[in-house]
Write a structure and sequence with these properties.
With 223 residues, this protein is of the alpha/beta class. It is built from eight helices and twelve strands. Residues 124-218 bind DNA.
């Protein structure tokens, strides 16, 4: 799952990037509103963490422009402003949630998880597909209750497929959601990671849909 972080405070941005990456997310960072607006319009994200007090273009304007451009990514507003009218302005501009500074990192991560769950029509933080369970809070994956060891890329790929279990996901979509904006993207490597995952998961769980992509069998519980 890929997150867009738009935050001009360098120290806080570094802490947020580290925490989100440790939680299994791919993170793109923009240090001002102009870059944040651009990335939100040209890249594909599963959620955005957006500061309001940004240079060049303020966060509310960025959010309004995203929504005017029909960008529907879930947005968590992050700001030092804790007045009720600022919260109302953010929600009215199209924000999905609001978190005031200072905050606990665990709360931010929980809110990001909730945004992504809701965007995918999921109720539970633990995703299921057949005997496979993935706990989005701990990053723990089990098969019939037994833990499975995955690499970072394998986990990210499985998490994305499980959020969209039962749906066909193209290699292009997987590449867009698994790699940062400035990384070397090679959709052929997706096949390699799919092959590795198949060796660790029950046979037939990941189906290849010829000419279209991949589908994780079954719908996750809570959909």
């Amino acid at each position: 799952m890929k997150i867009l972080l738009v935050e001009d405070d360098a120290a806080l941005a570094q802490q947020l990037r580290a925490a989100l990456a440790e939680a299994g997310y791919t993170v793109d960072h923009a240090a001002d509103g102009r870059e944040g607006q651009h990335l939100g319009e040209v890249e594909t994200y599963d959620a955005a963490v957006l500061d309001l007090g940004l240079p060049l273009i303020d966060g509310l304007s960025v959010l309004r422009r995203w929504r005017s451009a029909a960008r529907t990514l879930p947005v968590l507003i992050l700001t030092a402003r804790d007045h009720w009218h600022d919260k109302v302005a953010g929600i009215d501009a199209g924000a999905d949630d609001y978190l005031a500074k200072p905050f606990h990192m665990e709360e931010l991560l929980a809110r990001v998880r909730a945004l992504i769950r809701r965007a995918n029509g999921l109720a539970s933080p633990t995703l299921h597909s057949g005997p496979v369970a993935l706990d989005t809070r701990s990053g723990r994956v089990t098969i019939d209750g037994m833990p499975v060891t995955l690499t970072s890329h394998e986990y990210k790929l499985l998490a994305y497929l499980m959020h969209r279990a039962g749906q066909v996901v193209s290699r292009t979509e997987l590449t867009e959601h698994l790699y940062a904006q400035d990384s070397d993207r090679d959709s052929n490597t997706i096949e390699v990671f799919i092959g590795r995952l198949r060796k660790k998961l029950p046979p037939g769980l990941i189906e290849t849909v010829r000419g279209l992509g991949y589908r994780l069998e079954g719908a996750p519980e809570g959909r």
